[in-house]
Structure formats: C-alpha cells, structure tokens
Amino acid sequence: QVQLVESGGGLVQAGDSLRLSCAASARTFSSYAMGWFRQAPGKEREFVGAISRHGGSTYYADSVKGRFTISRDNAKNTVYLQMNSLKPEDTAVYYCAAKPADYGGRVYSTSSSYDYWGQGTQVTVSS
Q1: How many angstroms separate the CA atoms of 44 and 117, rounded?
Q2: What pLDDT was estimated at residue 35?
Q3: What is the pLDDT of residue 113?
Q4: What pLDDT score does 103 carry?
Q5: What is the dihedral of CA 122, 7, 119, 97, to 10 degrees?
Q6: Shortest CA distance to 98 belongs to which of 111, 86, 83?
Q7: DSSP labels for the chain?
Q8: Mean pLDDT in order along the chain per 10 residues (127 residues)
Q9: Cα-based distances in Å from 95 to 2, 62, 88, 102, 127
Q10: CB atoms within 10 A of CB 73
C-alpha cells in the first residue's frame, strides 16, 4: 500500500509559478512510475504529466508542455510538479498517482494505469 500526500497548492495570479510536491510512503519509491492529473469543476480528470521510475523519461499533456516540469527525488520519496506561466485554465484540483513499474523507462498517461492516488491539492489561478 502506498500513501500519497500532495502539497503546495494555492491561489496565484496569471503568469505566476507554483511548485507542487507529492510525498509517498512507499519503501521502494523508485519502483513506482508517477503521474500528475488534474480535475477542474464540472470536468473530467485529465492527464498533466508523468515521470518514469528513475526520472529519465517524462511526458506531458500538450496543454502544459513547455510550462510545467515534473521531477522526482527518490531519496526523499517525493515527486514535484513545477508550474510556470500559470493560466486561469490551469485552475483545478491536482492529484499525484503512483504505479508499480517493472520497466524503468516507461511512463503512463491514462488514469486507469495508476494504482494509488493522493487526496489532491487545489490550485486556483486568477486572471
């Protein structure tokens, strides 16, 4: 069982930056591929980005490519989402997710691929 706790959300203005963190309880955090998703009010949960077990591979949704960066620190059992040039349409609850991965370089972009989810952290971007 893996517990995930997101933090770092808040209210910012358009153009600002935020860094979200996701702390994992897993004893072998480096065995898990990680992902970030978001859900805006009245919308379905959507993929934001993903990172492989050791951080060598990343993948982003087109809507955030070039603005958001995922990284991880396996020594700290933490994955990060650096969000720059935020837009009002980035407003959502952001969730991190974990999936045991037997292949080191693989990333996953569908929510059904993930086995564990955090509670989410709210990000609100005002115009």
Answers
A1: 16
A2: 98
A3: 96
A4: 73
A5: 110
A6: 111
A7: ---EEEE--EEEETT--EEEEEEE--TTGGGEEEEEEEE-TTS--EEEEEE-TTSS-EEE-TTTTTTEEEEEETTTTEEEEEE-S--GGG-EEEEEEEEE-SSTT----SGGG-SEE---EEEEEE-
A8: 96 98 94 97 97 96 98 97 98 97 87 97 97
A9: 14, 18, 18, 23, 23
A10: 12
Q: How many residues does the chain have?
A: 127
pLDDT of residue 27: 86
56: number of CA atoms within 13 Å, CB side? 7
**99 with 33: CB under 8 angstroms?**
yes
Is residue 118 within 8 Å of residue 94, measured between CB atoms?
A: no
Q: Which two tokens stand for residue 116?
A: 């564990």
